[in-house]
Amino acid sequence: DVKVTQSSRYLVKRTGEKVFLECVQDMDHENMFWYRQDPGLGLRLIYFSYDVKMKEKGDIPEGYSVSREKKERFSLILESASTNQTSMYLCASTVAGTGLYGEQYFGPGTRLTVT
Amino acid sequence: GESVGLHLPTLSVQEGDNSIINCAYSNSASDYFIWYKQESGKGPQFIIDIRSNMDKRQGQRVTVLLNKTVKHLSLQIAATQPGDSAVYFCAESLTGANSKLTFGKGITLSVRP
Fold first, then answer.
1. How far apart, in Å, do the first and last CA atoms of chain B sit?
2. Which DSSP string corresponds to B97-108?
3. How many other C-beta atoms can be found within 10 angstroms of the C-beta atom of residue B2?
4. Closest CA to B66 of B80, B76, B45, B52
5. Domains, chain B, ranges and CATH?
6. How far apart are CA B61 and CA A90, in angstroms?
7. Interface contact B27, partner A, CB < 8 A
8. Interface contact flag, A108 B43, Cβ < 8 Å
């Protein structure tokens, strides 16, 4: 079974802190994604990566950055956390060969609260 | 997550009945569609997909129907069980190299015992 893991299930940070959310997948997937999920808004794409050291902005990249130094690991960084970044963050990866649109495997999510 | 379903439309069905969850997609050019299920406290999980060259596709206890004329997608669950209670999302995409999935807001399915 494909496994996508995220470093924390729950995280509480203060406004202005730098926050790192880590995601690891164990199936050698090429493409990895970070979404945020808010009640009533669905999943919104923050950033994605189609290869090591490659990254592309999604629909809502402002206030975020990403890092992909190894194929299995994709990190989401909040440079200076703000209260409007309180959300559920979901990482996903796609099966090799299906492109960016293919079936995505999701991690369990990290619920981040910024106070 | 646990609060995802709070602001979503809810479909309530009796255990054992069939469920039909509907989705209107936005892009008439989309040619690939997926249904996801998200249980409380978990990430979304793939259920079934369909390409635009098909009108219907069946899985185990689930059927997806695609009506391209009216940009409508539906998920039918046969003999709904308590374990089917979750938020269901449709997602659409173009099958081009740089295309990405666009997710709908989701519908909460609640199964009455």
1. 23
2. TT---EE---EE
3. 12
4. B52
5. 4-112 (2.60.40.10)
6. 27
7. no
8. yes
Chain A nearest-CA distance from B61, in A, is 19
Only one residue has tokens 């999943």, namely: A43
If phi > 0 it is left, if psi is from -120 to 50 it is alpha, else beta; for residue A110 that is beta
Tens of pLDDT along chain A (115 residues)?
A: 668 999 999 999 999 999 999 999 998 888 899 999 998 888 999 999 988 999 999 999 999 999 999 999 999 999 999 999 999 999 999 875 555 566 788 999 999 999 9
Q: What single DSSP character describes residue B96?
A: S
Q: Which of A36, A37, A60 to mutate to test the interface with B (most CBs of B within 10 A)?
A: A37
A40, A42, A101: residue with CB nearest B94:
A101
Give me the residue spans of the domains in chain A. 4-109
Task: Please tell me whether residue B6 adopts helix, strand or coil conformation.
Answer: helix
Note the CATH architecture for domain A4-109. Sandwich (2.60)
